[in-house]
Design a protein that fits this description.
This protein is α+β, with helices and mostly antiparallel strands.
């Protein structure tokens, strides 16, 4: 009888301890699934858009000119290999190494015409652009419109800045000045392909 009572108490203790962990695990998997769906292409796998910069190589340092320690102008970017059904392009730059819950957003630019193949440096920090024609810019994590370059905490080590470009199968019905999450929500289910270049910076 004592053995049975001990077994029941042990079972109750195990369930009490394990159940919260199981719930947390399920929630994490749900969040991960939502993130993947936001980036999911219409096909089995996204086509790879080739994106590069004259200012830095992939995984190479971003020159001071394009950072908060320099002129803080936007970096030049070029891309190719867009899907033929692309209706619009969008680009997001963020820093997952920032000591914040979410990656620190440096640039949100969208409604870029599909015939556009580059962004020249020093894009004006305005919500509506004439070059590229009709393109909009959103708010970064400073709450400002347009590009603000790398400015990591001093002594925090190397930070990685992800410039991600998206080819969309639809024209977005979205206003200028939105944040990253609003843009991702609008793009959900419409991403044909994406490409990425990463630059680094440290203080």
């Amino acid at each position: 009888m004592k053995w049975e009572k001990s077994s029941i108490l042990l079972l109750v203790a195990i369930i009490t301890f394990a159940l919260p962990l199981l719930v947390i695990s399920c929630q994490r998997n749900q969040n991960k699934s939502k993130t993947v769906n936001a980036y999911k292409s219409k096909g089995d796998l996204p086509m790879t858009i080739k994106i590069e910069s004259q200012a830095f190589v992939h995984n190479g340092p971003i020159p001071k000119k394009y950072t908060g320690d320099g002129e803080d102008v936007s970096v030049p970017l070029k891309w190719s290999n867009l899907p033929k059904d692309t209706k619009e392009l969008a680009l997001i730059c963020d820093d997952p190494d920032a000591p914040t819950v979410q990656p620190w957003v440096h640039w949100v630019i969208y409604k870029i015409p599909p015939q556009t193949s580059e962004l020249k440096e020093n894009i004006p920090k305005k919500p509506e652009l004439t070059e590229p024609p009709g393109a909009f810019q959103g708010k970064n994590s400073w709450g400002k419109v347009g590009y603000n370059g790398p400015a990591p905490p001093r002594g925090h080590g190397v930070h990685h800045y992800h410039f991600k470009i998206y080819a969309l199968d639809s024209i977005l019905n979205i206003k200028p000045g939105v944040d990253k999450q609003t843009l991702l929500k609008a793009m959900e289910g419409h991403i044909l392909a994406m490409g990425e270049i990463i630059g680094t910076y440290e203080r």
